[in-house]
Amino acid sequence: MNLFARLFLLLILVSPVALGSIEQFNYACQIYGDAMRIIDSMENREDYVRQRLQEQFPNSESLAVHEAIWTVAPEERYDLYVSSVSDTYSSDWSCDSLRDFFNQAVTE
To answer: Which listed residue, of 24, 29, 38, 105, carries a Cα 20 to 30 Å from 68's Cα?
Structure first.
């Protein structure tokens, strides 16, 4: 099973009620933006995001997706993340901060 299928399955298996809604991912988007604004190195940004997601959403799908997405080729991360969230919630979800975060990861 490819990684997209695994991420999609991960998001589908947990109901939106358990996730709390797409708002969890909107908040995660803010966390990625905060990391880009206040942290210099990509490694420290990743640690910051992981820590904030663990604090705000322990055992959540936003944290699980963050952890799993690093196994995907860097240039595919943003599209895979966004399509997983969009498909799960039947919405046109996006996050400019997330795109910037992953683009920066590709260049570092």
So the answer is: 38
pTM score of the predicted model: 0.76
Phi first, then psi: give them for residue 21, nearest 5 degrees.
120, 175
Three-state DSSP class for 68? Answer: helix
CA distance 44 to 7: 24
Task: Please give the span between the terminal C-alpha atoms of the chain, in angstroms, as a whole number.
Answer: 29
* Token pair for 39: 């942290």
51, amino acid identity: Q
Query: Mind listing the pLDDT tens digit of every residue in the chain (108 residues)?
Result: 566 555 554 554 444 434 457 888 899 999 999 999 999 888 899 899 989 988 888 877 777 888 888 888 888 889 988 988 888 888 899 999 999 998 887 665
Question: Cα–Cα distance between 94 and 79 in angstroms, integer?
Answer: 9
Distance, in Å, from the CA atom of 28 to the CA atom of 51, rounded to the nearest integer, reads 11
- Report phi then psi at 77, rounded to 5: -60, -50
